[in-house]
Specification:
This protein is of the alpha/beta class and about 250 residues long. The protein is about 25% helix and about 20% strand.
């Protein structure tokens, strides 16, 4: 594909340079044969000048196109997008997205354990921005009883209705069961609460809050939890429920 493109550009370049140098000669070779009396039908000075000007502009345009395409033509491969620096934004291993839709609570629940919120990122589901977040692996389907929220509608994800995503690293034996959001015009306060899954036979697990917080990376699961807000985050601060400011994922 790149060889064909290069050949096409070379042919067009030859034609435009020829037209710029000798517009009358180009007309004689390419168009005169269509006339009964070629020399009597030759273009006048004004037509020749326009022909030369168009050829010069086309030559410059082809040079610019060749410069723009030179990385892909020279390598034989299309330019590759730079990989997102996930490890620098969210740590390692790569986090997964809690793909569940839910209504945040306004008050801390009883019987669940608060987990530290490590980072946050503003998102816009309508614009699918930032795009890399929408390509991350999601936690689905969810079979553990008591897991927060419900599955999104077919064709959608929880991220599509979110304005905020927060990161939590937690005990893999526990699950996110509640998120608390308290927002106003200047800040959004967030609390994330984990617990053990409900028993298979029904009823709550008596050790629902028995989750170990602050585990190291090797023994914890990193999750991103989409949160629906009343509106876009914009310049509002994101804090814990105690007022402690939460760093943004792209902060250095």
């Amino acid at each position: 594909m790149n060889v064909a493109l290069l050949a096409l550009l070379a042919a067009l370049a030859a034609l435009t340079v020829w037209g710029a140098i000798s517009p009358r000669g180009q007309w004689r070779v390419l168009a005169a044969w269509t006339r009964r009396e070629p020399y009597a039908s030759e273009p006048g000075p004004v037509s020749v000048g326009i022909h030369r000007g168009v050829a010069i502009v086309a030559s410059v345009a082809l040079v610019m196109v060749a410069i723009c395409l030179s990385p892909s033509v020279s390598s034989g491969k299309p330019p590759q997008e730079q990989p997102q620096p996930l490890s620098s934004l969210w740590g390692s291993p790569e986090p997964v997205v809690v793909n569940r839709v839910y209504a945040p609570s306004t008050e801390p629940p009883i019987g669940l354990m608060a987990q530290p919120v490590l980072r946050y990122q503003a998102v816009n589901g309508f614009l699918r921005d930032p795009s890399y977040l929408f390509a991350l692996e999601s936690l689905r389907p969810v079979s553990k009883r008591g897991y927060i929220g419900v599955d999104p509608r077919p064709g959608l994800s929880a991220m599509d209705s979110a304005y905020l995503v927060v990161q939590v690293r937690a005990d893999p034996a526990c699950i996110p069961r509640d998120v608390v959001v308290q927002e106003d015009g200047t800040r959004v306060a967030v609390g994330v609460y984990y617990g053990r899954p409900d028993k298979k036979g029904g009823g709550s697990n008596p050790s629902v809050a028995d989750c170990e917080p602050g585990l190291d990376d090797a023994h914890s699961v990193s999750t991103l939890i989409p949160i629906a807000l009343d509106g876009e985050l914009k310049d509002r601060k994101v804090t814990g429920l105690d007022g402690t400011e939460i760093p943004r994922a792209d902060s250095r």
